[in-house]
Amino acid sequence: MALSKIYNANHSEAVDYYNRAIEYRKKQNINPDSYLANLNQLIGQSYIFIDQHDKAIEYLELAKNSYTSIYGIDNSANANIDEYLGMAFEKKGDYNKGIASYDRAYVLYKKIYGSFDTRTKSTEDKITKVMQKLAENRNAS
Known about the structure:
Layout: H1 2-7, H2 11-27, H3 34-49, H4 53-71, H5 76-92, H6 95-113, H7 118-140
């Protein structure tokens, strides 16, 4: 149900469904697992698209911490989360943190998938774009 809300661009409603799923999972007294990490990631991504960047960052960091405790730091889920963290920081206007997040994603993507993978190349392009924004802001000051 929540995924259909995202695909229909109703991100606020999707966040509500995801939060209900988390509450249901907590009532079952289950420790954080990949299911909860995935829900937190999806909530964070949804918050990006409704311009609630601080909430996006909060949920994405929760997801990253969970994935790290389950799989270790070097995993594809963390690469994906770092890419979304980069997007959240970029949209928030915190370009230095955006670049740092995109860079972590780039390094992981390159390590996991190689230099020529589309995820690696796309993230490299995002780093360049945010560096240009940062330079423009410095020149404007």
